[in-house]
Structures are given as C-alpha cells and as structure tokens.
Amino acid sequence: MVAMSGGVDSSVAAALCGQAGHEVVGVTLKLWGGASDRGCCSVADVDDARRVADQLGIDHHVFNYSEQFDESVVAPYLRAHEAGLTPNPCIECNRAIKFDALHQRALALGFDAVATGHHARIVVRPDGTRRLRRGADSAKDQSYVLYMLGEQVLASTLFPVGDLDKSEVRRLARNFGLRTAIKPDSQDVCFIAGERSRARETFLGDRIGLRPARVVDGQGTEVGRVPAIELLTIGQRKGLGLPGGTAPRYVVDIDHRGGVVTVGGKSSLLTDTVLLENFAPASRSCRGAVLAQCSAHGEARPAVLDGMVLRWAEPTRRVAPGQSVVLYDPRAPDEVLGGAFAAAG
Amino acid sequence: MSASSIAYLDHAATSPVRPQALDALQAWLGQPRGNPSGTHHLARQARRALDDARDVLAETLGCGPGDLVFTAGGTEADNLALFGVADALAVQDGVAPVLACSAVEHHAVLDPVLRLGGTILPVDRYGRVEPGALDETLPRNTALVSVMAANNEVGTINDLAAVVAAVAARTDGRALVHTDAVAAFAWLDLRQRIAGVDLLTLSAHKFGGCQGVGLLMARPGVPLRARLLGGGQERDRRSGTQNVAGIVAMAAAAAVTVAERDATVERVGGLRDRFVDALGDRLDAVHETVSDRGLKVASNAHVCFSGVLSEELLFLLDRAGLCASAASSCASGAINVSHVLAAMGVDAEQGRGALRFTLGWTTTHEDVDRATEIVVDAVSHLRAARSGR
Prior knowledge:
The complex is a heterodimer. Chain A is an alpha+beta fold. Chain A folds into three domains: 2-117 and 160-176, HUPs (Rossmann fold), CATH 3.40.50; 210-264, Roll (SH3 type barrels); 269-342, Beta Barrel (Elongation Factor Tu (Ef-tu), domain 3). Chain A contains seven helices and 17 strands. In chain A, strand 14 and strand 15 (309-317) form a beta hairpin. The longest helix of chain A is centred in the N-terminal third of the chain and has 20 residues, at 89-108. Chain A is globular and about 65 Å long. By secondary structure, chain B is α/β, with parallel strands linked by helices. Chain B has two domains: 3-16 and 261-387, Aspartate Aminotransferase, domain 1; 19-255, Type I PLP-dependent aspartate aminotransferase-like (Major domain) (Aspartate Aminotransferase, domain 2, 3-Layer(aba) Sandwich). Chain B has 13 helices and twelve strands. In chain B, the strands form three sheets. In chain B, strands 2-8-7-6-5-3-4 form a seven-stranded mixed β-sheet, sandwiched between helices. In chain B, strands 9-10-12 form a three-stranded antiparallel β-sheet. Chain B is globular, with a radius of gyration of 21 Å. Chain B starts with 6 loop residues before the first strand and ends with a helix. The mean pLDDT of chain B is 95. The chains are: A alpha+beta, B alpha/beta. The interface between A and B is medium-sized, with 18 and 18 residues.
C-alpha cells in the first residue's frame, strides 16, 4: 500500500513500487475537513493522486481519517499552543495517523508493507535490527519528523524515494510521465491555509483564546507588548514589536502563565542543557554520546544524554518546550537513535 | 477485474442501463437530430420524441405531461423544487417562506433547506417522519415541506398520504409538499401514494436510464420560479435545450421498470431476504439497521457489522469483486459519517460498521450467494486481524 498525498514524492514512490514488482494499491488520506481551511487533502490533491494511480494502473482509494486527525493532531496542536508550547503537528500526524492508524489498517487488510514518499531510509544492522536513516538528499531529509518509528513499524515500511535526490525524483516523475512532476513542494502546517504568520494567527485565534503579554528585558524592565503570547516561540526575533536601533533581541524565555516574555541578546539564548520528556519508545535505551537535532532542518550537534538531560558539548540555542529533539548516532551520523520532546523549564 | 466476476450490489448508487433504454438512446443518437425548440421537420421530430417521452413518464406517475420539468438529474430537480418554490413565494408574498424537510433527506434537499433557513424535522428510529409528531415539530406557517418517498441509505418508506394529511392539518392546508422519489420509483407504485403531493423528483439512472437526467413533477398552479434562465424551455420553468436522448432513454427505462415492477419487487425482495438472512446465520453480531423489512423497499439491505470499520470492509469487498457502499461519499471519495444513521439514533459505534447493499433488476441469486461468501470472508478476516494484535 502506498500512501499518496498527490505530491511528486509519493507519486514516484508508487511508480517505483510498481516497477519493483509489488502489487500496489494507492491510498490518499482525507485528514482535515475544516470547512474554511483548505490547506491539505483538498479535492485537487486527491484528484492528482487518483490520476497518477490511473496512469500507473493501480487501484486508488481514499481513507477518511479526519476524526482521528482532529483528535490526535489538531487538538493536541491547539492544546500545546494554549499551554505555551511549540508543537510540531507533522510529527504527531506521522506518529498517530500515517505510521499507526494507516499502518495497522494496511496490515489488517492483508498488505505486507506501507510505502510513503518520505525522504528517509531504513538500514538493517548486522544484528538484524532496523534503524531509521537520513534521506540521501540532505536538504529534503525527513528523518527528523519520523524519529518515533520503532523496529516493528520499520520492518513493514518502505521509503522508495529515500535514496534519491529531489531532482532525481522529479526527473523520474517526468520519465514516468506523471502529472505531478512539476508540482511545487508542500509547505508549512498542512491544515492551515494561506500566508504563514497571519494564517496561523487566524487559525489559532478562532479556536483558542490569544492573550496579550508584556515583553521585558533581562532586568525585568518592560520594553514592549505583544498581542498573543501563544504565537511566540523561543529564539524568535521578528514580530515582537520592539523599537529598532538596538542589537537584535530574541525571545529567551516565555512565562506563559504570568504573561511575560523575556528578550535578550543572542548570547542569553545559549544554554548547556535541554531537559527531555516523552521519549519515543525506541529511544529508551539511548544514552551517552549523541548528535542532537532540534528542528526539521537544523544542524545535529554533539551532546551527551544523561537520563532525561541532554548536555551540549558547546553552549547551544535554547530549544522551545514542545519541540522534538531527535538523537542521531555519532558513529553513524545519519542513523536515528530516537527522540523526545524538550520539556518546559 | 472483469465485469463478469463483479457482484454489483450498489443499485441505489446507480443502476445498470436497461437494454430498452440503451436501444432508445442509440436509436435516437444514431439519426439526424434537430433541436426540439426549432421549426423544421427534424426539430419537430425531436419535439415529438420529447413529447412522447413526457407522456410515458407522466403516465407512470399518474400526472399530466405538462406537470413534468426535465432536468439534468435528481439534484437539480430537488434544488428547483426548493429554491424555485421559495423564490416564487418570496416574490408573490414579499417575505421569505418557511421551509422544512426531514432529517434523513438526501443532501440535495437538506442543504437547500438549510441554506434557506428551514426547519429540520426529526424521524423515528426507522428513519420515518411520524405524521403525528408534525403537530409539534412543524411550524404552522410552513410553506413547503419535503419528505422523501423512500430513504436512499436505509430504504425506509414514508407514509406520504398520512404526511400530506398531517401537514395540511397543521398548516390549514397552506403548505405544499415535495417528495424526493429518487430511491422509491423503481420499487413502489407512486401513483396513489402521491395523490396529495405537489412536487416530486425522479432521477433516471436509479432505474436504468442515464446519469445526468431527471425530472421534477410540479402540479398545475404550484408556484415555481425558474433557476436557469434562457430560451424558456420546459414552459419557462427550466431553460436550456433538453437532453432528448437521455430523456427518451429515461422514458424507456421507466416504462419497463413499471411494467415489470411487481415481479421485480417480488424476485429482488426474495434475494435481499436470502442475502441478509445468510449474513445473519453465518456471522455473529450482524444488525439489520431496519429489521422490519416490511417498512423498506425490496432492494435495500442495510447492515451494521460490529467490530468492523465500513471503510476497511468496503476495501476488501472491492478487492474481492463486490461493489457496495457505506454512507454518502464526499467529493474526494472519502466516506463520511452518515447523517441518516445519526438522525435515526443509531449508536455511533454500530454505525462505523454500516454497509449498504442495494439489489436491482440485474441481480441474480448467484450474485447474492457470491456476495455472501465475500462478505463473510472479509468480515471474518477483519475481525481476526483486529483482535489478533
């Protein structure tokens, strides 16, 4: 079973699965049914997926996971913002929908494996266990948002485009004659449509209360005000409404309950440790030297994991609570050991 | 999958074209054609074909030929009935009229009524409008009520004569009554049942005609303002050159449907009973949504399988060559939760495993037996797969 979003990566994934001789069925997930928010799973994307499937001569079905998506992705996203955290809904979608609900369904329906168009690879280690590995195209690598995949799921997962550069994917799409060959990459949070910051503000503002907050400097002196504390994240520089003329100032701390945002210079953004929580099951045994990555396309930096505390080799920018910290193996820097959330305080 | 290996139990979605309809269609398309609104002899031929078809269809409904307005399908006819009457009354009275419909109507009725700010009437646990309840639920100043003749999902038949009488009593005879008879026509003789009904919708492809062809019956004197303006066809009630070929085929399909209806109902009803009984005998925890089959059209088998998701079951049935459906599908093809089951008060958990099998004029006992095997295998497989983990 190939999960087809209607984009070029999953289109080529489906084509490659067919070429490899697998009996392939394409499935598009209807995830978001918000009446006024038409970001993803639009009828047009389903049309693209269906037409690609037609072209490849494979069956195509639409599965409706909008209820689970609402429960497992959108609601936690809102709750996290309400609690002053910085969530990553793509990670929750992979965790709860694509690699859990869909995966289980595929196996229940008699399929051997689920393929997706993610840029990631799976390595089988000498002891027979499997590990997630970065995609060959480092600029498109999606291992960060897949860190939660455990051994069992990896054993029945395929990433057919993980070995390819994005340009090769597009070239293959053209060679296969797929209509999605020149379709632009998807961006941002799929269920929030429109211009980045405004759309997020509107989406959250319609669903949770946005609270104004005071902005103070390191000495506690008020330097400004912001209309919505829920929209801020650690390390943010823009959108603070601060007067110019000084050195750049960043959000270094958010007291969500008290409604106070502390800003400071770049150096006050640095920290030696990150407290982690909610480790993905596969990473429980993980300890010692690691490479830790704190955003989808951030750099993986050396650190030591000591229980729940990650100690950086060198002071590093603070991680916003709620963000995922993904751990890679220093001896095999492309391989994922696991990951967890950055905890608050 | 070849056509012969498919068991097609989705006649309520669309029914195969009747040979008589196909003959009529081919005969019509195969000759030089005129525009029925024209004046030369080919145009007059087209006009005559249209008039003949109108006569045949009027006969099957027991109405006058001039009462029929041909449309591009049931949805357009439903929309014309609701918006057309609402517009005409608004123009006539200077105020927007009050509309109402049952909670289990097709969206082609439900959505226009909602857009016009109308009242949604509750149904009983079988999906019927209770005439006795209208005294409390129907606003006295209602101008138009829409109650379907038979439900497209669960198959329940409404007692239209009783609904008409109750509506008249409640509104002092002022309210008009529309019925969406799309799911009923193939299975019920409507002529007597619709005696007091003012407007009625049919869709050709549900009884062996072509997709995209339908009609609205509107009794003489019913206020109806056109939605499509143009050449003034259909007595100024629906402009646009008629789909003569489709209408001729619809008439042929209607004629054979009515001629064979009693026999088809008996034969298909027997197959439906055999099918549902076999599922109940061979599988645990199978619930007929409306277990009193006397309340339903003969073609409908609506069944809830506990512990199974309809989306997964449909997938396996499709792979095995059995065509059926769950609740209404949305534009993307995803399955939505059924508003019909919700209105009937069917337990949401039970509704997750609901499937609609609809038999029709082509269904054979081999189809039904094959379908039984496929369903039993798929349900057993899914129950084992889901519990085994």
